[in-house]
Specification:
The complex is a heterodimer of chains A (876) and B (284).
Chain A lengths: L5 H20 L5 E9 H12 L2 E3 L2 H4 L3 E8 L2 H8 L5 E7 L2 E6 L6 E9 L10 E4 L4 E4 L5 E7 L3 E7 L6 E6 L5 E5 L7 H4 L16 E5 H4 L11 H5 L5 E3 L7 E3 L7 E5 L2 E3 L3 E2 L4 E2 L6 E8 L12 E7 L8 E7 L2 E11 L2 E10 L1 H5 L2 E5 L5 E19 L5 E19 L16 E22 L2 E23 L2 E22 L5 E25 L2 E27 L2 E12 L4 E15 L3 E12 L1 E4 L13 E4 L7 E15 L2 E18 L16 H5 L2 E18 L3 E16 L7 E2 L6 E9 L4 E10 L3 E2 L4 E5 L8 E5 L6 E2 L3 E14 L2 E10 L7 E8 L4 E7 L4 E9 L1
Parallel strand pairs in A: 2-5, 6-12, 16-21
Antiparallel strand pairs in A: 1-3, 4-5, 6-9, 7-8, 7-10, 10-11, 13-20, 14-15, 16-17, 18-19, 20-21, 22-23, 22-53, 23-24, 24-26, 25-26, 26-27, 27-28, 28-29, 29-30, 30-31, 31-32, 32-33, 33-34, 34-35, 35-38, 36-37, 38-39, 39-40, 40-41, 41-42, 41-43, 43-44, 44-49, 45-48, 46-47, 49-50, 50-53, 51-52
Helix pairs in contact in A: 2-4
Chain B lengths: L1 H13 L9 E7 L8 E5 L14 E6 L2 E7 L5 E4 L11 E8 L2 E8 L7 E6 L5 E6 L16 E14 L10 E9 L15 E6 L7 E11 L9 E10 L1 H7 L18 E16 L1
Parallel strand pairs in B: 1-15
Antiparallel strand pairs in B: 1-2, 2-5, 3-4, 3-6, 4-5, 6-7, 8-10, 9-10, 10-13, 11-12, 11-14, 14-15
The chains are: A mainly beta (876), B mainly beta (284).
Amino acid sequence: MPIPGRRSLVRGFAFATTLVLHVGAAAAQDLRIDVRDVPLPAALAIVERQAAVTVIFADRLVAGRRATCRYEGDSVPDALACVLTGSGLVARESADRQYVLSAGRRVETRPLAGFVRDARTGEPLPGAHVVLPEPGIGLATSTAGFFSFAALEPGEHRVRVSFIGFAVLDTVLVTRPGPHFLSLEPRAIQTEDVIVETAASQRADLTLVPGLVNVPVSRLQQLPSSLGGQDLLEALKWLPGISRTSEVTGGLVVRGSGPDQNLYLVDGAPVYHPWHAFSLVSTFETESFRQIRLYRGSFPAEFGGRLSSVLDAELSDGRRTEPRAVASMSVLAARFLVESPITSTSSFMLAGRRSFIDRLIGRTHPVSDPSGRVDTLRTGYFFYDWSAKVALRPDKDSRFTASYYLAGDDLDLRLPFDLSLDRNSWMRPADLLFEVDEAWRNALVSLRFERLLAADWFLSANGYDVRYAADEGAFVQPSRTADVTSDYSVRLRDVGVSVDADHYRSLEHQLRAGASIVRRSFDSSVAALISYAPGVTDEIEQDTGSDAFEFSAYGQDVWRPEPRLHLVTGLRITHFSGGPFTRLSPRLSAQYAFHPSRLVVQAAVSRNNQFIHRVRDRHSFLYDLVSSRWVPSSRDVSPADGDQVALSVESRPGAGLEVRAGLYARRASGVLLPDDAFQDKDGLAGPGIETATLLSQYVSGEERSRGFEWETTLDRPDWLASIAYTWSEAENRQRDATSRWYRSRYDVPHALDVLLRRKGGAFSGSVSLSWRSGNVLTVPVARYFLEDPGGGPPTGYLYRPDLNNGRLPPYLRFDVELSYRFSGLGADWLVRAQIYNLFSRRNVVSRLYEPDELAVRQRDRRGLPRIPLLEVRMEL
Amino acid sequence: MAILLVATAALACDTVQPRSDGALVVQLFVRPDQPPPALRLTRTAPFGAPDPGVRSADVSLWIAGRRVRYRPADSVGTWVPDTPTDTVRAGAYFRLEVVSGADRLEADGIVPPAIGPVSVDVSVPDHAVEAVLLDSLSLPLDSLRFELPSRTGFLYPVVARVRWNPPPASSIPEWWMETRLVPVRRFSSTLIDYFLRPEGVLREPSGKDGPLEWSGVYAVPVAAADEPLPPHELRVVLVRGSGDWAAFASSDGDPDRREPVSNVRGGIGIATGLAIDTLRIVIR
């Protein structure tokens, strides 16, 4: 599949514009109406067919009316006037190729707006589907749970509201300037509630761009995590096109792009390192969020700053109805969540988690030896996260939230080198030892204010302060005369404000615009002293720092020229002070519902930019060992620019059955690739942490990927089955004329995930299969010898002409999980047992090559074996 | 199940079968005040196969505008100048061109100035020091097999302080010096290796007053703390070259994992100008 460049992108927009103009011109065709005493709807249908227009009307207006008309000409209004003669009705053009019938007087419209909430918690429900069965118009609620039909005939209107996991609400609302408040009652997941809708716009209202995952957290909670517990990012792995960089660790890889191209937002604020335990588990506990939206590849104009994906997560406001408390303990961590109303207009949520292995084995260990010497060994490691949110609603039109999020890891070791499972053999004072003191922290404060200015205007303002800090300290003494002391730190801070406004201009147009400004600060320092022998030392002491402002503004129009078609056009402009650089990012997506449930087609083309790059030193073990550095674009390094096209098809052919398939292609330039792909950390003293030094280890490059994603979900009241398959290709090349494309390290051509889950009742459980192509590796194909000009023996080298020319064996794993729910001691309990890698298949996760005289031997590193896991959860 | 079978077939098709291209490998070191040297010309070979020397090629070396033709010597893979020529002077520009079948290989460089007098001071502690010879952090590749070996022992850290004169100031680009300590008995341990410094690659500031200095460290293991340092021979090697040589010398230390950075266009290997000095010292 060809991937469009910049010129192709422009051509694509030009084609789309031409197409729209052409369709508009088609309305000016000759009309011949000749009806006699036929039902009025039938006569209107003739006009619709001949003029290629849509006529919207309430059934009660035309019921029982008949039409007689003879017309020849090219005026649609005249033709409609002819058909409506004597009916007392008039036709008004409400949008291009769209007419609305009303009583024969001056048309007066009123708005119908409101908020949709969860009846159990009182929290807003973003993404809920609000439909007016007559005249068949629908839309999805915003992140604030808000909806607005801007121009309706005054009076009562039937409204249907639905959301997966909630009972459908049918009600009648009256147009009025103020908002309505609708509450949906939760119920067991039964997708019949949704699919019974008959509005032609059903699918077209909900996900307007291909690749968007917009599901309630309650559904994500059903998806198992590899190592148990509740993990939002782990749950996303069940979606096609998403994987981890390693077996159970590493960042998310979305459609073959690097983890640094994903934007993680918590209440509108970016999180730079959402991982614990060396990326074993994410910092996002599923249960503390009320909604997530994941944009794979194509995202609306309101988002920017990354090339690949956006995860927009919203912390729970806390229940407004009654208090709730949850406590849970698994093999990895213990956690709790408390949420409650404070007053009738406020609520809070507080959640925390902490690992406890340090509590089991102890953080400090006083030791002594027979000579009376004493020491204190340390074996401290834990991770933790806190999230808290307070929501205030000073009046019915306003909402104010304050969110706090803190996630970190703390590693504190002081140990001898002769560790073994025999603890008594090394629990003593030691002269030769190592100390490691490392900590990583993400902290953010986010304030958000939302206000309904009018029934058709909604304003949201957000301010945040985000800090990421990593400290890596070490002392290593392997002999009495050699040691190293190092202290490395990385600081990153974002302070930003943003304003977004939604204007529900008409039934056909929904406008959204916004602006943001953020100040990004990057600082790091290293101080290290390496003593090789008495009098032979290396000393490193460096500080770096830089600041940059990023200003963005965007505008977006969601246009529905007719009920089956949505067009979303947007433009984002970003100015980054580092260069300075200014970039325009056009976004265009279209969606057409051939059938409300059986066939919805989406397409999108977009351009994204990324102004910060993640790099790490590739030489020294003393710094950048765990944490990496973010570097702003500057005169030394340009922003990365990416183009994406995507096409998807969705269908719900039966009760609970959903099928999605999609194609995508993406290409990016200005991404940083290692200058020397074979360079790996190999010593203590490296070239340093100066930004220019780090950047010199990289070259500007290009990446491209394409793929096919297929997902089928069968969600029944008692069980859930899901199959997700991905075919993809991902390649890189250094940006010079002679370089060739080679497979990206994230290239995984085939991935298949199958989940079968039994739910409901006291016992529930799941079996799952994960199967994918092995990771790429560089295989030596020959050998050669070079002599030493200094007189040493010749050295044999393994010849590796092509990077990533081979692949590890396929990866396969089965997991099982069994849960039991019961009530006791005044609480609801859940006991969950899980077996990771049921058959203990020893998957190959990496491979080294070691030559001898006659051949090259392979040394494989195997993945995790069978691991039993247990979690106990209690809810009050 | 059908999906599984299709995916299986596709997965099988995806497996890459690496192939060998049999690339040309060249090695040439042009040294100051010596005639044009012999060069090595071979190809990459399958594992276990003998070194396949190239005997059919058109090999020319231009030095200071004069062409020196090469012919194969008796030794496999060795090529020597066809006719005797004058010695090469420091600062001379040279260009190598090899045509073998469809392969064309080129490299160029400048001959560095010779290394002047070199002095070496060696210092050894009075007693051997305790050190971790095998640490339990060097986990086996299969990290879940908790084989946690560890062993401590004793060694002498030997410090060699090497001094030499910087290259004279000139318009030639900067020079680099590779310094090596090569004891007769090499010692290596995963952890201790990080704290030894048997090699270095340093940029030489030209025209600097006074000698340049580099200190290296190597280790000599002994059986007990009170065991004296075993007498042994130390070879100190200094190699001066251009940035091409520095890149090569900085990347040639892990032959199983990576290839050294080559300056040869159309092939692999190294063809550069070098000045070499070697000292042998007996440490008692």
